[in-house]
Amino acid sequence: MTERLVSHLRYAALAVPDFAVERDFFVNHWGLTEVHAQDGLSHLAAEASSEPFILRLRRADKRIDLAGFAVRSRADIHALADKLHAEDVQFVHEPQELTGYSGGYGFRVFDGDGRVLEFSTGYETRTPRKIREREPIPAKLSHLVFNSADLNRTAQWYVDHLDFTISDSLVRPDGTEMMHFLRCNPTHHSIAVAMGPHHSLHHLSFEMRGIEEWMRGAGKILRSGARMVWGPGRHNAGDNTFAYFLDPAGNTIEYTTELSMVDDESWEPHRHDISDLSTQDQWGTAAEMSELVARESFNDIDKGLFVAPPV
C-alpha cells in the first residue's frame, strides 16, 4: 500500500477585496459556519467536518493565500520538511508551533508555481454534527483545483515532492493533456490542475451529504442570485456530481457529491477524451463545455505567487 506523508486536504485560504460581502455569502447562502473572526479575517467550518475550519477569508487584494494539508504526526512533519529541503523546495517558514486559529505544528512552502502550501498536525479539531436529511449545506471541503500555464510541470511538482498520484487526466483528441486529477489518499482527487492562460484558482469544491442535498443546495444558491456557471451534471473522471457558481469575488465554487474512492494498488489512470460529451457530463443535463464556459474559471491572474500572506 502506498504510504504518503500528506494525509488529506484541510482547508483553502482566500484573500478577497470585498470581505464583508464574501463572508456574508459563504455564511448566509453557501452554508458554512463562522467559528472564529477578527478584523478582516474569518474562519469558516463545515458542520459535518471535524476540521476546525475548511475556508479562511482575509480582507486584501484578491489571491489564493494558501492551501492547508494535514500530516499525521510531528515525526512525519519533520520527515516531510527534511525531504523538501533535500529537494531544494523554497520554504516560507520551518516547522514550528502555529499561532493561528486552531494552532498545531507545521511549516509552509511555495509550490513550483509560487502558491503557498501549509502542512500541519496536532491542531484542535471540532465536534462535527450529522447533516440532516435534505439539509442543503456542505459536509466538508472536497477538493481544490488550480489553473496552470504549464499543466504538466505543475502536476509533476506534486508527484515528485509530495508523492501525490495522478488518478485520471482529461485530454484533447490529439492526446494533449488538459487536466490532471491528483490524490494523496483513496479519494479520487484532493487537488487537480487545469490548463489555463495563467496561474490562478480554477475552483473550490464542497462536498454535500448526498444527491438530494446537492440538488437542493444548487437551487438555494440560484435563488440567492448567484450565477450558475455550469451544471447540474455528473463528471466522468471522479464520477462526482457538479454544480458550479461564481462567488461575489468572481471565484468559481462547486457543490459536489459522491466523489469516487480508488484503490492505490489496483487503480489504473484513465485518459478521458474531452471531445466525448460524456467525459464532462455523463447525464447530459449540463450545457456542453465550450470556450465560453471554460473562460469563467480562468479567473484573475494570481498576484500572490511567491509572496507569503501575512497570516
UniProtKB/TrEMBL annotation:
A Pfam entry, by short name: Glyoxalase
Protein name: Oxidoreductase
UniProt cross-references to InterPro entries, sorted A to Z: Glyas_Bleomycin-R_OHBP_Dase, Glyas_Fos-R_dOase_dom, GlyoxalaseI/FosfomycinResist, VOC_core
Provenance organism: Microbacterium mangrovi
Residues annotated as domain VOC: 8-122, 140-258
Top-level taxon of origin: Bacteria
